[in-house]
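[stage:ingest] chain + small molecule (adenosine-5'-diphosphate)
[stage:ingest] validated
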Amino acid sequence: MLTCENVTFRYEKSGLPVLRGASLTLEQGQIGILLGKNGSGKTTLFKTILGIRRPSGGAIRFDGEDLLKMPRRERARRIAYVPQDIQFGALTVFDSVLMGRVAYFGLKASHEDYLAVEKILRDMGLESYARRNVEALSGGERQKIAIARAMAQEPKLMVFDEPTGNLDIRNEQLIIREAKKLAREKNISILSSLHDLNQALAFGDKFFFLKDGVVKYAGGPEIVNEDVIQDIFDIDVKMVKIDNQKVIIGGNNYEH
Ligand code: ADP
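[stage:predict] done
[stage:export] tokens:
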């Protein structure tokens, strides 16, 4: 279980705080979606969880352990990061995924590390890609490799920053399906930002809405409604049900 309690953070001593006491709880195996306007502090909150930024106050725990006191390598065995547009360098797919094992092997990969990578590529249907250069792959394929690399870390939590940002609709759905499958099969928690609310509804079990430096609303799909979206994003939307699935349509301009 991941818990953030009253996390506060500001980039500059004299600057305004970005996080003013943000709290959230994510159970093991749950998919949590962090939503909020651009600049509301989603990436900043991720960075405090990942240990890239140190909060000025509050607590971040994973399974009861204090993440703020945990050495980097220990943390990397629990938490993997999937950035929006990953740059691997000119590596093969196999070696890119193997890099995810660095927290385990340090300087030299062992036979077990190679076996672990082979298994992940097999599980994700990526065996035929193993010898290809990652740089020559499409955005959707690269994003799958980024997830495979995160998997090689054998994490309990994966943090995704806008994982479908640069993808077309087919690849968006593929990545969401793949990530959901992993969470379910391996009981991995996922914390993700997503700008598309309908994707968020299709992907998430729990939703966190960030505004004014705090998580203002948190809960299951039932808390996502027109009023909450209006408050967070300043847009008028309509929520309808299609095939028993909530769908959000519109914005301020759909009446024009
Ligand atoms: P989001 O991910 O929700 O778009 P961010 O966490 O990236 O938001 O940014 C939150 C706020 O912090 C913004 O006002 C942004 O300008 C500011 N910010 C982000 N990174 C830095 C930085 N390195 N130095 C100073 N301010 C920053």
